[in-house]
Design goal:
GO terms for molecular function: methionyl-tRNA formyltransferase activity. It catalyses: L-methionyl-tRNA(fMet) + (6R)-10-formyltetrahydrofolate = N-formyl-L-methionyl-tRNA(fMet) + (6S)-5,6,7,8-tetrahydrofolate + H(+). It comes from Candidatus Limosilactobacillus merdipullorum. Its EC number is 2.1.2.9. The protein is an alpha+beta fold. Helices cover about 25% and strands about 30% of the residues. The strands form three sheets. A seven-stranded mixed beta sheet has the order 5-2-1-6-7-8-9, with helices on both faces. Strands 10, 11, 12, 13, 14, 15 and 16 form a seven-stranded antiparallel beta sheet that branches. The model has no long low-confidence stretch (mean pLDDT about 95).
Length: about 325
């Protein structure tokens, strides 16, 4: 039985951790995750999904604010685990810690490296309209997501997918790929490939500025942006003078000569807007600032001023 220290934080990492716990071939000595954070309107102190899973299985949990030079780091080094496995952990690991493993320190990363190194690879893949993404298992080095590639698997992104659904799918893909790969690492039967530096792209965490929809984009690209930021942090636009979160849109086949952001037509259950290159889309679900999430019918009941040709989407609040 090989020993493992597992590092991860969000739900993405949970199936991966559970597969290690359930396997008779591995013993999880400890789980390292981010400290409990206050979440929601009531700011309740909440454990990460990975911590909750570890506690359910009576596994030791370590939660350093910064792992470098921490007592927790010293404790892990003393464990000298066979494997150190990370999946969306959220901190850089120092070389001294990586070198404490007996076999390998590896990461399960939700992209086809060297594309989308960084903390938000799934968001960028959906936002950019990529036809596919995948999972990479790589050796960990001090530089972010730069280690040699051990294994990869691809997965298509459909127009019905959003970042939430892709996280769920990629988590299971990563779980399966990890469990296929670990025996080869134990046997020394791997052939890692160095990442091509000319193909490296980055996916830094989404900024608040990136949440704004550029309404001059085509309808398909606006849809990609909305799906790419769902279920978090949610795309927004200034609609009828109010900052409004946009949860769901549908690109339409019809064309228009109106300018981006203008109203093409209003019906009882539909608001159709112009986008770039004469494309159009309808908004299905939205949440104006200070209001509840609502469908377009409920929204239109309170916005009788929206008429054909009206500039409904603007750069800033009136």
């Amino acid at each position: 039985m090989k020993t493992v220290v597992f590092m991860g934080t969000p739900q993405f990492a949970v199936p991966i951790l559970e597969s290690l716990i359930d396997s008779p071939d591995y013993q999880v000595l400890a789980v390292v995750t981010q400290p409990d954070r206050r979440v929601g309107r009531k700011h309740r102190l909440t454990a990460s999904p990975v911590k909750q899973t570890a506690q359910q299985h009576q596994i030791r949990v370590l939660q350093p604010e910064k792992i470098n030079h921490s007592p927790e780091m010293a404790e892990i080094i003393e464990m000298r685990p066979d494997f150190m496995i990370t999946a969306a952990f959220g901190q850089f690991l120092p070389t001294k810690l990586l070198d404490a493993t007996q076999i390998a320190a590896i990461n399960v990363h939700a992209s086809l490296l060297p594309k989308y190194r960084g903390g938000a690879p799934v968001h960028y893949a959906v936002i950019n309209g990529d036809p596919e993404t995948g999972v990479t298992i790589m050796y960990m080095v001090k530089k972010m997501d730069a280690g040699d590639i051990i294994a990869q698997k691809k997965m298509p992104i459909t127009k019905q997918d959003d970042t939430g659904s892709m996280f769920d799918k990629l988590s299971l893909l990563g779980r399966d790929l990890l469990m296929e790969t670990l025996p080869h690492l134990v046997a020394g039967d791997v052939h890692p490939i160095a990442q091509d530096p000319d193909k490296v792209t980055f996916s830094p965490n989404i900024s608040s500025d990136q949440e704004r929809i550029d309404y001059h984009l085509t309808a398909d690209r606006i849809d990609d942006k909305v799906r790419g930021l769902r279920p978090f942090p949610i795309a927004n636009m200034v609609l009828d003078g109010t900052r409004t979160k946009i949860y769901d849109v549908t690109p339409l086949a019809e064309k228009t000569d109106l300018k981006p952001g203008q109203v093409v037509r209003v019906e009882k259950h539909a608001l159709v807007l112009a986008a770039g290159d004469g494309t159009t889309y309808q908004i299905n679900k939205l949440k104006p600032a200070g209001k509840q999430l609502m469908d377009i019918t409920a929204y239109l009941n309170g916005h009788q001023n929206l008429k054909e040709g009206f500039q409904a989407v603007t750069d800033d609040k009136h």
